Amino acid sequence: MYDDRTIWRHLDGEMPEAEARAFEEARGKDTALARRMAELSEVSAAVRGGVPKPPPDFAARVVARAMAGPVAPVFPLDEARRFLRRVIVAAAILAAVGATYLAIKVVPSLVNTSLWADPLGK
Which of 10, 86, 98, 108 is deepest in the core (most CB within 10 A)? Predict the structure, then answer.
């Protein structure tokens, strides 16, 4: 069985003539080899074909579109400001709730500890 490297050598025409004839003979007898050769041949054709060329007027169309004027933003500025305002209000509410919780629950429990009553431990 031939490996991919050997198949690539054959596709690229890098095999000596005698070895290429033996390879072709083996390919005629081995369906798995013929199938792999066909797969790699498709890859080779795609690679050799390169990147498709853009139409001749592509650059002119891009420049004309860019020069046509400003494009409307995807997220309008007024809508962005409203959204940001809502986020700030929500953050302020959460901060107020957190400060209230600390003032009502946490601070009184700390005041009633011995650390506050006698900080030097006397």
Answer: 10
